[in-house]
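Changelog entry

Holo records now carry the ligand SMILES as an explicit input line rather than a separate metadata file. Below, a converted record for pyridoxal-5'-phosphate, shown in the new format.
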Amino acid sequence: MPSARAAHKPDHMTEFAARIARTELAATFAMAARARALRAEGKDVISLSLGEPDFPTPPYVVEAAHAAAQRGETKYPPLGGIEPLRVAVAETFQRTHGIAARPQDVLVTNGGKQGIFNVVMSLIGKGDEVIIPAPAWAGYEQTVNFAGGVPVFVPCPQAQGFVLQPEALARAITGRTKLLILNYPSNPSGATISAPALAALADVLRQYPHVWVLSDDIYEHLLFGGAKHHTLLGVAPDLAGRVVTLSGVSKTYAMTGWRIGWCIGPAEMIKAATVVQATATSGVSSIGQAAALAALTGPQEFLADRVAAYEQRRDVVVAALNRVPGLSCHQPDGAFYVFPSIAGCLGKTTPGGRVIHSDNDFAMALLEDGLVGVVQGSAFAMSPHIRISTATALPRLEEACRRIANFCTALG
Ligand SMILES: Cc1ncc(COP(=O)(O)O)c(C=O)c1O
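Structure line, unchanged by the conversion:
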């Protein structure tokens, strides 16, 4: 009788499809795995590497999901989403941005991530270029590579507030450009974009009618100090024929595990995106959709308290990091990340003799010596930076900042 291990040993080398080799898993997962391994050794690691609210899903949302299950809403759901949720998404969009949206313009997806996948797989074939303003969430590059497209990063440095400049956009567009991805408030920089800055991008886009835009607004409600969320269609409704707006409940309502997002777009795009989704997963969890419907239509007051907590954490972390030698941190207006430059630490050596050549080195040394998990800027296509998630209780964040300060001060 062969052992279970032997039974699973391949007797030949499998040649996986090329898309597997060219698709790297997000480095955010790798860093979290290393932190888990250190914790398993009994070390007190503070992990600030995941983009996930630390708050619970609101109880009324959980109750709505329970009630839906008890009512028997446990059958295959409609492909595009349950009608009341599509209505709620369209109405919310219309109310917030003053742009007409109908339920049939909405596709409910398995998290925002599947919305991105659906749109990219609908549009992008081999060699098609996708413009991604950097720094950017790693999921975009991953999806574009999977589809066989070419990610074209446009650097948007800290000195420009991490915001895409119209001249840089114009320079990046070629005849092969199929899609531009916008993400404000941004992961990883937390940057927001003003209405005039978006209007300037729209002016460029009007000259290139072959370019589609995916506006990833997943952090739209996490805004500080009176900052407002502006979305491309709000300032340029004339581009509606080639703009997809994406959002979901993961970040706003602390519902990352429920896997509910949506995209709103023109009929031809929603149709194509539905084909992708039908092929991969069919409709989205019926229970999750009932929960998302409750989230959108239920009381919203709790949100202000949570946003205030994120804002307080941002203030504390930005102030603490800017006192650390070698770090320089901007003040983001949204989301729950900061993205300081570590340029001043490059070339320095840890007390253990490790030289910091890059933000990868910095993040790994900080994790192993300082027991704080962050993500290197290279994972977001901008170095030398690190991303710190502030979705952690304030006392732990303060302790993490102390550890970061000690780590940087000890560099020689
Ligand atoms: C910018 C951005 N877009 C989309 C997503 C995906 O969200 P979801 O968890 O709803 O799939 C994330 C998640 O981290 C994100 O940061």
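Spot-checked after migration. DSSP finds 15 helices and twelve strands in the chain. The first helix runs from residue 4 to 7.
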